[in-house]
Amino acid sequence: MKASAVITQLINRLPQLTDLFTTDYTVSSIASSGLAATVTTTTNHGLTSGSFVNIIGATADIAIASITRSGKVCSVVTSADHDLTLSDNDITRGKTVTISGATESEFNGTFVLTRVLNRRNFTFTKADAGATTATGTPIVIDGAGVFGYSGLQSVASIVSPTVFTYTLPKALYSPAGGSIIARTDYRVSGAVTIERALEAYTAQEINDLWAFVVIDDVTASKNRHVRTDATDTLTRTSYLKQDLVQPFSVYVIAPAVDDITGRVQRDQMEDIAPILFKSLIGKKFDSGLTGEQEYITTFVSHGFQGYNGAYYVHGFNFESVAVLTFEDSIGYDDDVAFRDIDVSMLLDFGTQEDALTASVDLDEVEL
């Protein structure tokens, strides 16, 4: 596991959950043409080509070709592929769909989704009253879902101090809806030790929270069936398998110059804990080993690490397990051709004299 992989995961997920580790820029509009999305911010964004930005709150709506009602059942045909799904759990929870833009108000609103027939057709229910056909320009709010405008994006080009572009996964309805924010200036980094992280933190202006990833030492899981002090006792076979425990920590450093006790900062860490859980627990990080990663990241502990009146440090400890298999070992011995046979048989009757000797050079044997 590499610290860079954990940092990338945090940069991807944290801005979707909190603004504590980023700077927010209000977006006035996102328009798209083909796969190019053009973002206009209300203030200078400070981005450069190739940098990352999280788009938050942008809905990727889907145009509706028709809505017809038969009794309580409304059938919707979309003009482009939607990303709606309906699992058994969704049905139990009463998953909803939101429609806007129809001339007839009874077709606008949030409704319980009842069926998703395919990528262009779904149904919902409403009261058996009013019009049977929708007119106007109805849309499914955020019908493109996770494949829409929002999420971690790489800046493709800078048009002006308030305009930049990025590339969409597919052509979308334009413009994007919603109350949109661009989050960037990520305060997430890594260090080899917490001491080095503190040096990097104090080199900045101490007025914001930072998160530093530190990769800890890898150990092999102890085999509970081994009766020695060894970690494991394995033979050189294809059944080699060891679990490698990869712990890592996320240290959150909070400014504390206005708090002489550190109580506020300690309480804040209880709010940050579930955010980090939702960002890391369940993620599989590449171990660099041959076998596919089998185990997810799990939580170990979190607690106070340091406080000096200027800043407060809190450590969140996680763990991932990788599997070391035969393919990651030295393998079998190199094959060596079977060339010669030397045989010597002795009869031990007190004389120790050779009774039979033989020497065969296999290269000279005709097959």
Order of helices and strands: HEEEEEHEEEEEEEEHEEEHEEEE
How many runs of DSSP E, i.e. beta strands? 20
Strand content bin: 35-45%
Q: Outline the low-pLDDT stretches.
A: none
Anisotropy-based shape: extended
Give the SSE map:
Blueprint: H1 3-17, E1 23-33, E2 36-41, E3 52-56, E4 62-70, E5 73-78, H2 88-93, E6 96-102, E7 109-118, E8 121-125, E9 136-140, E10 151-160, E11 163-167, E12 181-184, E13 188-190, H3 194-202, E14 210-215, E15 219-220, E16 241-255, H4 263-280, E17 298-307, E18 311-325, E19 340-346, E20 354-361
Parallel strand pairs: 13-14
Antiparallel strand pairs: 1-2, 1-12, 2-11, 3-10, 3-12, 4-5, 4-9, 5-8, 6-7, 6-9, 7-8, 10-11, 14-16, 15-16, 16-18, 17-18, 19-20
Helix pairs in contact: 1-4
What does this entry look like structurally?
It is a single chain. The protein has 367 residues and is mainly beta. It has 3 domains: 25-60 and 146-184, Beta Barrel (Elongation Factor Tu (Ef-tu), domain 3), CATH 2.40.30; 62-143, Elongation Factor Tu (Ef-tu), domain 3 (Beta Barrel); 189-328, STM4215-like (2-Layer Sandwich). It contains 4 helices and 20 strands. The protein has helices at residues 3-17, 88-93, 194-202, 263-280, and strands at residues 23-33, 36-41, 52-56, 62-70, 73-78, 96-102, 109-118, 121-125, 136-140, 151-160, 163-167, 181-184, 188-190, 210-215, 219-220, 241-255, 298-307, 311-325, 340-346, 354-361. The protein has a 6-stranded antiparallel barrel with strand order 1-2-11-10-3-12. The chain has a 6-stranded antiparallel barrel with strand order 4-5-8-7-6-9. Strand 19 (340-346) and strand 20 (354-361) form a beta hairpin. Helix 1 packs across helix 4. The radius of gyration is 32 Å and the shape is extended. The model has no long low-confidence stretch (mean pLDDT 88).
